[in-house]
């Protein structure tokens, strides 16, 4: 029988092995938008990190409540797609009084701006298509 010498394997420190770089998903916050609104309302006032976190939490809660109510309204009406109407009704249900009127007017303004932007994009696409045909 032949004597076999055991080959020594180099010891590897498992802490030194690099794991594949997994990017953590960035946490989306409303902080930039909250800060912009604060600047337009009170340009000389700042906001602490703790207050920003509270405002962000508040915005997330309101957003979730509006989404849940709008989804429930769409299900009641046997629709699979949320429309502006469901979101507006949910906003009226969740946000009280005059604040809801302001929220609805800003929402309507945003929807109309989006629609005009879409129409402009369609017109540009039609113009480009017409030039290609000629």
Automatic annotation (TrEMBL):
Signal sequence range: none
InterPro entries with a match to the protein in the record: H2A/H2B/H3, Histone-fold, Histone_H2B
Compositional bias (Acidic residues): 122-134
Domain of life: Eukaryota
Compositionally skewed regions (Basic and acidic residues) per UniProt: 1-12
SMART domains found in the cross-reference section: H2B
Any one GO molecular-function label of the UniProt entry: DNA binding
GO annotation, cellular component aspect: nucleosome; nucleus
Region (Disordered): 1-25, 106-134
Residue ranges occupied by any Core Histone H2A/H2B/H3 domain in the UniProt entry: 19-93
Family: Belongs to the histone H2B family.
UniProt-recorded name of the protein: Histone H2B
Species for this entry: Carpediemonas membranifera
Lineage: Eukaryota, Metamonada, Carpediemonas-like organisms, Carpediemonas
């Amino acid at each position: 029988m032949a004597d076999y010498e055991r080959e020594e394997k180099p010891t590897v420190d498992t802490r030194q092995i690099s794991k594949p770089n997994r990017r953590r998903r960035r946490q989306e916050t409303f902080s930039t938008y909250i800060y912009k609104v604060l600047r337009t309302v009170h340009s000389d006032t700042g906001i602490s990190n703790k207050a920003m976190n509270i405002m962000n939490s508040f915005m997330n809660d309101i957003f979730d409540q509006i989404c849940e109510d709008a989804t429930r309204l769409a299900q009641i009406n046997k629709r699979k797609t949320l429309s502006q109407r469901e979101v507006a009704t949910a906003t009226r249900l969740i946000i009280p009084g005059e604040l809801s009127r302001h929220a609805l007017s800003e929402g309507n303004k945003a929807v109309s701006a989006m629609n005009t932007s879409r129409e402009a994009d369609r017109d540009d696409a039609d113009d480009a298509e017409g030039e290609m045909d000629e």
